[in-house]
Amino acid sequence: MGAIFGMATCLSAQARETPEDPLNYFIGGCTSGIFLGARTHSAMTGTSACLGLGTLAFFTKVGKMEGWRIVGPPKL
């Protein structure tokens, strides 16, 4: 699934000509979820995994771009 995520993210970044756009990461996560659903022969699993992994990847990218911190040492 990691290879599928990476490939889909890079291909969407090249096709859309926006390499740092968080939507590319959503597309990669959603593609990974779709393949997970295909592997389990379940459309509901694929749909849920698409939305879940896509959203997780999207917010991970946005968080890195904006410097969000969840855990770590406090800023002094």
From TrEMBL:
Keyword line: Membrane, Mitochondrion, Mitochondrion inner membrane, Transmembrane, Transmembrane helix
Membrane topology, as annotated: Multi-pass membrane protein
Transferase as UniProt keyword: no
Localization (cell): Mitochondrion inner membrane
Coarse class of the protein's main subcellular location: mitochondrion
Family the entry assigns: Belongs to the complex I NDUFA11 subunit family.
Name of the protein in its database record: NADH dehydrogenase [ubiquinone] 1 alpha subcomplex subunit 11
